[in-house]
Design brief:
Elements (H helix, E strand, L loop, with lengths): L4 E4 L9 H10 L5 E6 L11 H10 L5 E6 L7 H6 L4 E4 L7 H10 L3 E6 L17 E5 L14 H15 L4 E5 L7 H6 L4 E4 L1 H4 L4 H15 L1
Parallel strand pairs: 1-8, 2-3, 3-4, 4-5, 5-6, 6-7, 7-8
The structure holds ribulose-5-phosphate and fe (ii) ion.
């Protein structure tokens, strides 16, 4: 599982034409749809819920949908997102009262499961659940908004997370989210990431394919 995945964050997409815009970015070469769920409680912003995920599926989007839950509490929306067509569901461990239970709920709902770490959240939440996760998502900005700058300390944390994955012997994706762009994606990959969320870097440009191709060219230098 060494291939690199590019996951545009629809936080920066055109909400008035969401289906079309998501289709456009997938046609431009994206692998996964990153779906940022914010509740104006766990993070100071409000986005969208399971109905929009369902609407994308009904529109005909078949690519994996990577649901990043920035909500508290976590559990009640997990079955709703699974029913709405989520492929992967990740949550912030400090937002769940019972991490193991939330992970089990995601798996029972038929989705892949992962934990998300804010820049200041320690990786020790992984200690007893490495056998229950499919993905680790490291935030390289504080959560809540697109268009922020990549926090450089994330590179060290990515190396630590990659060492934990290698030691586990399991196939676990290492995703990075926040401030990823053509200029830094190679450095981020070299630190151990294999899945890259990019919102503003892609959706704020007129030619999505040009950005995604440029990202893949940078990634090819790392392999
Ligand atoms: O989870 C998020 C914010 O909380 C977004 O996925 C992230 O910020 C992506 O946007 P950008 O690439 O513009 O930084
Ligand atoms: Fe995100």
């Amino acid at each position: 599982m060494s291939d690199f995945l590019i996951a545009p964050s629809i936080l920066s997409a055109d909400f008035a034409r969401l289906g079309e815009d998501v289709e456009k970015v997938l046609t431009a070469g994206a692998d996964v749809v990153h779906f940022d769920v914010m509740d104006n409680h766990y993070v100071p912003n409000l986005t969208f819920g399971p109905m929009i995920c369902d609407a994308l599926r009904n529109y005909g989007i078949t690519a994996p949908i990577d649901v990043h839950l920035m909500i508290k509490p976590v559990d009640s929306l997990i079955p709703e997102f699974a029913k709405a067509g989520a492929s992967i569901i990740t949550f912030h461990p400090e937002a769940s009262e019972h991490i193991d239970r939330s992970l089990a709920l995601i798996k029972e709902s038929g989705c892949k499961a992962g934990l998300v770490f804010n820049p200041g959240t320690p990786l020790h939440y992984l200690d007893h659940v490495m056998d229950k996760i499919d993905q680790i998502l490291l935030m390289s900005v504080n959560p809540g908004f697109g268009g922020q700058s990549f926090i450089p300390h994330t590179l060290e944390k990515l190396k630590e997370a990659r060492a934990r994955i290698d030691a586990s012997g399991r196939e676990i994706r290492l995703e990075v989210d926040g401030g990823v762009k053509v200029d830094n994606i190679a450095e981020v990959a070299a630190a151990g990431a294999d899945m890259f969320v990019a919102g503003s870097a892609i959706f704020n440009q007129p030619d999505y394919k040009a950005v995604i191709d440029a990202m893949r060219q940078e990634l090819a230098k790392v392999k």
